[in-house]
Amino acid sequence: MKAETFLPDDYRPAEDEPFMNDRQLEYFRRKLSAWKTELLEQSQETLEGLAESARNVPDLADRASEETDRALELRTRDRQRKLVSKIDAALRRIDNGEYGYCEMTGEPISLKRLDARPIATMTLEARERHERRERVHRDD
User: Whole-model pTM?
Assistant: First the structure.
């Protein structure tokens, strides 16, 4: 078990420190863990809300509206579930030393990009190339 890394509350990863040093890794681990906790709490609230709304509504318009709301909640819940699995994958990459490096090129992903999207697996350039290739193949 590794000793916990001290991290001041106002710490932000900086370009002038070694890439993916212990402090940066701890910063992203905490950021990802907090995001995951928030999503799981929202999911629990969604499930409780769906359980409460599973009542029989006699008015057809009200029932249709409730069904639409329910479908939207379920879609949101599914997106959150996928996001939680991406967060788990990012936490595993932190643990095995692969976090912060592009899965296509092996280059470091910018700290700005990781701060904005901590589940990123590619540099912005690699992501754009990947999306262009997908568009070309989709148009075939």
Answer: 0.81
